[in-house]
Amino acid sequence: MKKKAPTIQDVADKAGLSKAAVSRYLNKSIRLPQDTGRKIDEAVEALGYRRNLLARRLSKGGSETLGLVVPEISNPFFSEMAEAVEQTASERGYNLILGISRNHPEKELGFLRWIDDSIVDGLLFVTNRPDNRRLQLEIRRYDEVVILDEDIPGTTQDKVFCHNVEGAYDATRHLIETGHRLIFHVTGPASLMSVQERLEGFRLAHRQAGLACPDSHVFHHDYTQQFGREVVREILARPARPDAVFAASDYIAIGMLEELRRHDVRVPDDMSIVGFDDTALADLVTPKLTTIRQDAAELGRIGTGRLLDTLARRDKPRDIIRIATALVIRDSVSHR
């Protein structure tokens, strides 16, 4: 039979004190004489008593826990973000619970209920699927949410994004300056903010260089490696192959690298590739991926700080914060 865990009453009985006095001492809401405090500490040690931290926190009016909702954790971009969120939360005395939605609408809505159920005090929320307004209408009920990386149109919470237009412009401009003229763009769902903004930067660089940029050079689907593999087969079936491809995420770009290698297309000799995100994988693949860096850790740190500021002052003005991007040149682009 499992041994019953000791209670705070057991500690009080062993120390010869009242339950109220022991509770207040353990919660650091009372100062007792040194000898009395030592009796409580010795009783706790002897009995192996562990406080119910969740119950104590809820009794004080909060869980001292934040939630982070991401589409997946296998993508290094989201794991880097999660690590930064946890570190920032911990430095401010908060724990972190991770929710993985896999972009399922019901799971995303369920994670919002964590706030209603006092499981978390607030949420950092990432989605990269198009919304049919259902998520927008639900998330607007909550002040204790910060939206990261991808917009949910119609919401008014704090938001932290990167400068997508500038990053895409720099990627495309780099390809043009290295002599590429027929450049395709492989990107995510057309209704997403990041997709629209990165396409804007792609087109802007073409206009400034006097190059054509027809819709037939743009391929939309999901931000996944599988799409990267599939789009390669479509591109190679075209009568005219591009000199280069700007992929709107490293995940897409890495899928493309894998499939191009299977078809004996050499990168960068036959086709140059540029990604977006600069995840840890970009420096590990062959060839090493030239890409646009958006700092996932910085997104997480800033977002966590904004959420904690909101929890401390509910009337704080909401804002949209943009972080800088930077071109990281590696080995996947050749000079034509």
TrEMBL record:
Domain of life per record: Bacteria
Residue ranges annotated as transmembrane are none
Q: Name one Pfam family in it.
A: Peripla_BP_3
Q: What is this protein called?
A: LacI family DNA-binding transcriptional regulator
Q: Which GO terms describe its molecular function?
A: DNA-binding transcription factor activity; transcription cis-regulatory region binding
Q: What is the lineage of its organism?
A: Bacteria, Pseudomonadati, Pseudomonadota, Alphaproteobacteria, Acetobacterales
Which SMART domains does the entry mention? HTH_LACI
Which residue ranges does the record assign to the HTH lacI-type domain?
6-60
Quote the Gene3D superfamilies the UniProt record gives. Answer: 3.40.50.2300, lambda repressor-like DNA-binding domains
The record, for InterPro entries, names: HTH_LacI, LacI/GalR-like_sensor, Lambda_DNA-bd_dom_sf, Peripla_BP_I
> Which PANTHER family does its entry note?
HTH-TYPE TRANSCRIPTIONAL REGULATOR GALS (PTHR30146:SF109), LACI-RELATED TRANSCRIPTIONAL REPRESSOR (PTHR30146)
**Keywords assigned by UniProt, alphabetized:** DNA-binding, Transcription, Transcription regulation
